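Q: What structure does this chain adopt?
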Amino acid sequence: MTIPSIEQAPRETINRFQEEKLQRLLAYLQANSAYYQQVFHTHGIDIYGIRTLDDLASLPFTTKEHLQQENTAFRCVATSRTADYVTTSGTSGDPVLLALTDGDLERLAYNESLSYQCMGLDAGHTVQLTTTLDRRFMAGLAYFLGARRAGIGVVRVGSGVPELQWGTIERVQPDALVCVPSFLLKMIEFAEANGIDYRQSSVKKALCIGEPIRNPDFSLNALASRIRSKWGIQLFSTYASTEMATAFTECMYGVGGHHHPELIITEFVDENGHPVPDGEAGELVVTTLGVEGMPLLRFKTGDIMQPHYTPCACGRTTLRLGPVIGRKNQMVKYKGTTLYPPALFDLLNDVEEIVNYVIEIASDEFGEDEITVKVGTNAMSDELLLKIKDRFRAKLRVSPKIVFASIEEINKIKFPENARKSVTLLDRRRPR
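A:
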């Protein structure tokens, strides 16, 4: 599969290409979406006056709350045309239900075939999925469909169970894994405890989902560095969400997730919803292209990210998306310092004695943010406690409350029954 020509075009050509797609989307919403018909009517919007990408700023945002509260009004097709239903994980509110058509499934397959292409995987390779395909989870389905579209063989192992993962690797000899990066550490731990020579396995690459593996400067973060110090496989970062049904996956050069302009329009806005200067970090806002079931117009992802516009050495000229700096609704103001949880995760991942952890954010009696870090370790001691506190003060200038717990206790919190994703952050703050 060759790189699509639009992903190697000049920025001006990409903009014109997307503006044509945008006009088709607006006409489609006007004809089929009860929600957007009402939005256009309420705000007096003439869709034919929206001609350029800059004109998008005149349209109101769509939020997750809108999707939760008026879900069926977003549907643009009859139930008879719905091929599959998926939901968001619900980690930041009630799960959102999304209806997909056959065309949407084909778009999903195309999207993830591009992800595999970015990784250097194509027909003849085999990938092992450690993600579930059930529980209405889009990611597992997307990676399966994308692999098949690209002619890549798939072995569907599902989540967890390192013994089963290694047994499958031995029998099938896959070239790559799709997995949560922290699970790679569990696989390494199991291999070392059971005499498995994992460094000589067939696996040479891993597509890392659900957790960041890079710092804002694209260097590997603490979690990825721990993995690479043990197992020298290539790690590829990706960013995606169920709502936008699109992924930004990095290539071998590791300098940001590549934008596919045929699938999605991106904007970056400040806390007041205004466009940020070109290249500065802001909240990612997306408009989906080519979606039939539930297209979205100016959907606020809540993720603070930085775009990069210089061409990549791989030949793509499209925008490159930096790692998530933080989620807008998860920003913490603690003892005069503004923090985002990824900064806490990265610091904790860099302490070798820590096996697992969860972070709780709550409101004190005055409504101020309080942070408690529950650490699972086999090396509980005053020395380790001081080491963790000193690292927080050195890196972040403040140290939260640290509580030691058993590894088993933390795992019960991190992996709730029937959950699709692990839980690392518990936000118990009172609404303001």
